[in-house]
Design brief:
Glyoxalase_6, 2,3-Dihydroxybiphenyl 1,2-Dioxygenase, domain 1, eight-stranded mixed sheet, alpha+beta, Anthracycline_SecMetBiosynth
Length: 260
């Protein structure tokens, strides 16, 4: 694959009700879901505008039994999955799925950072560049936000593994800084301290929408929950942080057309 080491290349929803989740995100983000081809049984692909942007699968019963909750996970491109997984373990992270091949797709591992936030590392088997993260395209991911118990440690961990660098920062009072992260000159997201009474440390992925108010209305009208927003953020756009009907957290970002 042609993505660079450290790029976000895929987003995946683990859920308890795949059909209901597919209908929800179709209504909110305009995605279409279809079964994946090949050897990955039970896996579905989210697409929009002719491009594939993410995946969808039901949490296996054995993982439900161990307390796994619905949520979104990101895939980060690496040159060598085995070496990356070993480095993550050496740095105090965890490994939930060891380096594994998916025929025709690539090699991946499911890991977690030292603060317990899960993510995938992957090297794709096919040529081409993933467009899952594309800040210019509606329906694609525009922003990757990590809320963590130790922002400084997280920044050091991801920077050493993936070459991410600190960009600008916005002071948030007692919460510390909202620290932007850049990769090869592009601001790809931010790291912040999690709210003491908020959700556990996790990545939240913000997907682009054409009208933030229409998206917020679709969330509520299709059984979801708005946790924050719509609120204006730098750049003249607005965000909402929402939960789908199964409880997975995600974000939406876009303009407020009613004020255009």
């Amino acid at each position: 694959m042609t993505n660079q080491h450290g790029d976000f290349i895929w987003y995946e929803l683990m859920t308890t009700e795949a059909d209901a989740a597919a209908a929800f995100y179709g209504a909110v983000l305009g995605w279409q879901a279809r079964p994946a081809e090949g050897s990955v049984r039970g896996y579905n692909i989210f697409g929009v505008g002719g491009a594939d942007v993410g995946g969808l699968m039901t949490i296996p019963p054995e993982d439900c039994d161990t307390g796994m909750q619905p949520g979104w996970l990101g895939y980060i491109a690496v040159r060598d999955v085995d070496a990356a997984a070993a480095e993550i373990l050496d740095a105090g992270g965890r490994q939930y799925v060891p380096p594994t091949d998916i025929p025709g797709v690539g090699r991946f591992a499911l890991v977690a950072d030292p603060q317990g936030v899960p993510f995938y590392v992957m090297r794709g088997a096919m040529d081409g560049t993933s467009a899952s993260f594309s800040q210019e395209k509606t329906g694609h991911c525009h922003w990757n936000e990590l809320a963590t118990s130790d922002p400084a440690a997280a920044l050091a961990f991801y920077g050493a593994r993936f070459g991410w660098e600190k960009g600008d920062a916005m002071p948030m009072g007692e919460m510390g800084d909202y620290q932007f992260i850049t990769h090869h000159g592009t601001t790809i997201g931010a790291v912040m301290k999690r709210m003491p009474d908020g959700p556990r440390p996790a990545w939240t992925f913000y997907f682009g929408v054409e009208d933030i108010d229409a998206a917020a209305s679709a969330v509520l009208g299709n059984g979801g929950t708005i946790h924050y927003g719509p609120a204006e953020v730098p750049g003249g756009v607005f965000i909402v942080v929402a939960g789908d009907p199964q409880g997975a957290m995600f974000g939406a970002v876009g303009p407020r057309k009613a004020q255009a």
